[in-house]
Amino acid sequence: MFTKSLAEIAITCDHCGDECIAKNICIDDKRFCCAGCKMVYQLLNQGGLCDYYNLNDKPGFSQRIPVRTGKFAFLDDAAIQAKLISFRDEQQVHVNFYLPQIHCSSCLYLLENLHRLEAGVISCQVNFTRKEASIVFMAQTTSLRNIAELLASIGYEPYISLHDLKQQKPGIEKGMRYRLGIAAFCFGNIMLMSFPEYLGIDASESGLRNIFRWMNAGLSLPVFLYAADPFYKSALKSIRHRFLNIDAPVALAVIITFVRSAWEVLSGTGAGYFDSMTGIVFFMLAGRMLQDKTYRHLSFDRDYTSYFPIAVSVISNNKEIATALPELKAGDTLLIHNEELIPADGIITKGSAYIDYSFVTGESMPVKKDMGELAYAGGKQTGGNIEILVVKEVAQSYLTALWSRDELKAKESGRVSFVHLLSRYFTYIIFGIALLTTWYWKINDPTRIWIAVTAVFIIACPCALLLSNTFTNGSILRILSRNQFFLRSAQTIENIAKTTHIVFDKTGTLTDPRQQEVKYEGKPLTTLQKQQVMALASCSTHPLSRFIVKEFEQTSQLTVAGFKEIAGEGIAGVVEGSLVRIGSCGFITGNTNDTGGTVVYISFENQMHGWLRFDNHYRPAIPSLIKKIKNRYKLSVLTGDNEAEKQKLRRLLGEDAALLFSQKPGSKLDYIKSLQADGEKVMMIGDGLNDAGALRQADTGIALTEGNNNFTPASDAILAASSLSKFSSFIMLCKANQYIVTASFVLSIAYNIIGLYFAVQGKLSPLVAAILMPCSSLCIFLITFGSSHWLARRMKL
Amino acid sequence: MDDSDYRLHALRGIFLLPKIIPMSVIIILLIASISIASLFLLAFLWSVKCGQFDDDDAPASRILFDDKLPNKTNV
Prior knowledge:
The structure holds two protein chains of two kinds.
Chain A: H1 4-9, E1 26-27, E2 30-31, H2 35-46, H3 51-55, H4 78-84, E3 85-88, E4 92-98, H5 105-112, E5 121-127, E6 132-138, H6 144-153, H7 174-198, H8 206-227, H9 229-240, H10 247-267, H11 274-291, H12 304-307, E7 311-316, E8 319-324, E9 333-336, E10 346-350, E11 353-356, H13 358-361, E12 367-369, E13 374-375, E14 380-381, E15 386-390, H14 406-409, H15 418-444, H16 449-459, H17 463-482, E16 485-487, H18 491-498, E17 501-505, H19 506-510, E18 511-522, H20 527-537, H21 543-552, E19 560-566, E20 570-575, E21 578-583, H22 585-589, E22 598-604, E23 607-618, H23 622-630, E24 634-638, H24 646-653, E25 658-660, H25 665-677, E26 682-686, H26 692-697, E27 700-705, E28 717-720, H27 727-760, H28 766-794
Parallel strand pairs in A: 17-24, 17-26, 24-25, 26-27, 27-28
Antiparallel strand pairs in A: 1-2, 3-4, 4-6, 5-6, 7-8, 7-9, 9-15, 10-13, 10-15, 11-12, 11-14, 16-28, 18-23, 19-20, 20-21, 21-22, 22-23
Chain B: H1 3-13, H2 23-49, H3 58-62
């Protein structure tokens, strides 16, 4: 916010690093910006936890806006408690809290020493990656509400949303790790015990040979029965859906290899192919894991329940009762406090609402609503308390109803990776070769049918295709995530590659909500006047005030007397002896003629001096990005705003782009649907909740975010705004994915042909199989990894 | 036994013990090696179960704190 030299002069809070405007809040040798920060320090000082400040410089979060007392009253409700608590007995209660503020080792230190601040806490273990704290406390000495309030008081307010009610713990990929470990163990040992066989152990040592063979058979059992079961399950599922996916032939090959090998060992005719079977299962599992790497700090499945609070205060008989959200009924009166979300569509019955819809629309400016007006769910009240009469239940509210639309539920099925189609042809060819082999040996030597045909299936399993696919996907996902572009799954890579039409949301996507282009018009301001305006604006937390402070960047700090803020109108105060007022046209001049756009007026001593015009600030990366993709894709822009910026957008996007204004969330979704009906593969890039329906409907929904901690609507991919300039390269890399997979697959077919040459003759020795399998796997790994990284380097990713 | 036989034996001796050594020794060796390997496998499975791979960042910072954390065995 300030230049470097300024930062040295300005005194910053030792707790949160914000600038100290009031100079007198200090204790010991520490200075604080507000009473809240000071209180946290005192609390930590009592607990002997001041290492918190030594581990990191200014690790805290600003406590300027205190947490409302009674905010966690709903935690006394037994029904809500039962949903949040993971375990409880006579003495102990275990609970997991999501603490989005966790960001450094100081946080870890403080939270894990929570027992020093509250005697009832037995332990607190932080999961840094997931930003979660698992807390164990004694039910007798303290309560869930106490714990939540304690956390809030030290600056780590637990984020408890409606989503937590569902009790869906994120799936842990532990099972995959168990399988990989077991497969690796068995594969390694079987390989070792197969060496005598490779080197030609002779029949005179038959006792020893049998021991090795039986050991191998025994070791392959856990792989066959446990480690490989993801492939069986997926194969079964695909057969049930009457669609042959790649796992079906893979599972078939694994089963045939095992049966054939077991038969050989039982009958004493050979050693079998246990080494190849376990090896391929191990490699395939490793590829899967690489591909399915999850980003635990991100969530792709957020629907409105992750944004909405778990409970809200309902007023009945003049009493506030904390009520769980699903139990709200039309006709209830809700009390919405400052900074709280409106959970259901309702009519404002008391107080003046000043609603921040930035979550919903991406629009940074709060909207004023008067008594009797309808407030949509999803907005956040700023300012005083208001009362709302619920019109529609939570699940039927305007925004939330978007999620329950039927067409969105049907989306998941019907997307098929090209790999599955390729594998289907492959399977047909293999069955053809197997039939030919059967027919040939039936004529020539019927005893060899079984040997030859099983060998064909063993060698021709499309595991090479599966490997090249998973390894390529895995390495591309890694490259993209290194560049702050996180995909939900590997299928998204293909969807991005197939895109024909890109739809942008305007507010918050093309424009940067955190910045505004500020233009001053009117009588020129002197330096003193600029300082006065800035001093006054810095007292307010309104977004427009912040932009003014940023724009005027003045050094000296004047003191403001008699500061007054009228929500939705403006601010006033005495600075350097003169009355300064900043605010809306009506606030300054008295008459309310709306000139359009965001304009803030300034007056000194009640004399209108000039006005500041705020314009959308387009992200600097946008013009060059549009230029790069303009000729290759059809473009559209959807915005909830009016046509004020039509000319600007037209210049930016060119003549062919479709520009749609005044779009409601529902109409955005319908626009995407109409494009899809014309056969377009649509990619939607948006940010707010109002885009959520369109993001879900689009073939690829990309949510733009300013930081990893921000909440993003449900989407297929999450893109950091800072990486927007590289976006065209990301698309190129996703397109390259298919070529890399195909190329490495063609190469691995060469191995298959060599193998088939032996197999159809019924001469496939375990040694040939054991050499071919790792060679082709290694080769695939090198090609996919090498080429994707080479491409990424060429694209400067 | 001619020269080539010895060479063959030497080559195979890397992986296979010559016939002079009784078979029971190899079986004991096999059992020993497999059980040691199993111990490592168990250690791995145990570590997965305890959440060793769940959080990559916290333990790295946690080890630097001087104070003793609350005793987790009574949890």
